[in-house]
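My current task is to audit a protein record that another person submitted. I have pasted the whole thing underneath without changing anything:
***
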Amino acid sequence: MKKCDFGLIGLAVMGENLVLNIESRGYSVAVFNRTVEKVDRFINGRAQAKNIVGCRSIEELVQSLERPRKAMLLVKAGAAVDAFIDMLIPQLEEGDIIIDGGNTYFEDTIRRTKYVEEKGLLYIGTGVSGGEEGALRGPSIMPGGSPAAWEHVKPIFQAVSAKAPDGSPCCDWVGSDGAGHFVKMVHNGIEYGDMQMICEAYSLMKNMLGMTNKEMEAAFHDWNKGELDSYLIEITSEIMGYSDEETGNPMVEMILDTAGQKGTGRWTSEQALALGIPAMTIAEAVFARTMSAIKEERVAASKILKGPKIDFSGSKKEFAEMIRKALYASKICSYAQGYQLLKAAAEEYHWDLKFDSIALLWRAGCIIRAQFLGKINETFAKNPNLENLLLDDYFKSVIDSTQNAWRKVITAAIENGIPVPAFSSALAYYDGYRSDRLPANLLQAQRDYFGAHTYERIDKPRGEFFHTNWTGRGGDTVSSTYNV
């Protein structure tokens, strides 16, 4: 009996759909799930009459696979992944490959790569983005781990992945150990920013301009034909036009305003803090979700705390166009922050990240797929060492042409008491990045005053540190650490 090309453990929504995708590309797949009833249901249902083999144990799955065996985990991140790795290792032979396709924290992937390689096996930690539809029709795939494993999974991964408009697969090797899962984490952080900025545009159009859902549906539809052409803008237009069957009201208005999250945006923000990268727009998007979560507290506060009365007069159409420009400018800044974080991580973890290729991985299949990722690809292909997207001629010209509208939109939001944390933080990032002098000189004086933390001087070389006895009562002892 011919053995299967690929094995998959975990038949939840993503697992089932990815298996069907792999099989549709001409590969045979062995599947296992801890709850064996799910295997039977899948084999007798969606997988019926397909080249898919149901297994009732890990041992049976491993025995069903062609060598080098390729066994992929699509299970809940954390302890479950470690448990399945420990179940697989005794059954596998040298050179076999374990793949984790979940939303795993990259440091866990670094640890697991080392652990699995020490057993004579190969390991891949791969980001998979695109949700249920992407898994079935073609996701963006971001693999990293043991470099020797790539040649064995490349044909399968690239066959099942999404294809960019030019036909190239949205899947390529990212780097060693945790690089793939780090890139997926940053993808999700950027996704948080994109979604929050779109929500702020919606809030301004609804609450300040008084636009109807049909008008907003049309606006987002038009925006999706230009620079903002993207999956998230496309589905937002569709959401705006969807009616609730029970009430006839716009469906979006029937949904409680409390947002959930799985933690990847928070991980991105934590890594930005750890690596010293000012990814404030992504962080504000995370905080916006946490603000939404305290619904009862906000409702109570709304009865006590007052703000300005909304007062807008003018052309809704013209101001909506200004909101579009503010959204695009803010989006550029958010992506600039994400790429700064990728550059810092490449240096910190010794990954040879290809920034132009990463943009190509995100051009189709994934949640943040967008037309302007082609521009990011062109930018880094032309200048791989570019410090910041804002310094590229194209993105600089966009900011130059949109920032007047961007500032007016944020000003109007503030004057009308409408929170726009992502728009505002993106502008603060831009203004901070273009400032040759920030008030951190006073901050350093304060730190030196109360803690003898020292400072550098503008008239001395960088790297020389000084301390002032501000009160005349301090001694000569200074702090032993100085972190920028």
Observations:
- The CA atoms of residues 373 and 432 lie 24 Å apart.
- The chain has a mean pLDDT of 95.
- The radius of gyration is 25 Å.
- The beta strands are 6-9, 29-32, 52-54, 70-73, 97-100, 122-129, 140-145, 175-176.
